[in-house]
Amino acid sequence: MKRLFIALLTVLVLSGVQTLSAQETAQQGTETPDEEELVEPVKNVIHLELGGPGLLYSLNYERRFTENLWGRAGLTYFFLFGSAHIGTQYLWGDGPWHFETGLGVTAGYIDTIFSFTDDDENGDNRLSALFYNTTIGLRHQKKEESIFFKVGFTPLIAINFKRAVPYGGLSIGVTF
Fold it and tell me: In 3-state terms, what secondary structure has residue 19?
């Protein structure tokens, strides 16, 4: 599990590194572009989410890959519980309000004070689970830097236990 957390943390750090790109040359003409056309859409979001794929809460980083496709990674740690998740979201709509759909995977664990088997020589009292997660929600995000907000239905499919769990999430953060 530590390796998974280290790998996800590495992905978060590396995806935040900006790549250099050449500036586009302005088209010659007499028309002045609209102010909205001059604003480059934000590429990054950091947000805190209650519920959602992180189960209890999670600190998340999202990165825009295309106009509508975003990647996401998040971490949770709370006393005896931890989780990490990655996924993608697709945004539908124009303006600041977007319909959001997404898919991802969550790995989680919980430490217990009891051993699950009598022959547990290592004293490993950890129960782990793997979940597929989906997202269907509403997202408020402007093209320029601003406050970010979303609410969604995020059902979880527990692979280890072969069960689906209806779930939801509420997020607030910043775009940059």
Answer: coil
Q: Is 19 part of a structural domain of the chain?
A: no
The domain in which residue 164 lies consists of: 2-10+38-175
pLDDT for position 47: 98
61 and 45 in contact (C-beta within 8 Å)? yes
First to last CA, the chain: 31
Residue pLDDT, tens place only, 116-139: 555 555 556 778 889 999 999 999
pLDDT for 29 equals: 47
Instruction: Give the dihedral of Cα atoms 134, 152, 73, 41; nearest 10 deg.
Output: 120
**Domains of the chain: total:** 1
CATH number for the domain that contains residue 161:
2.40.160.20
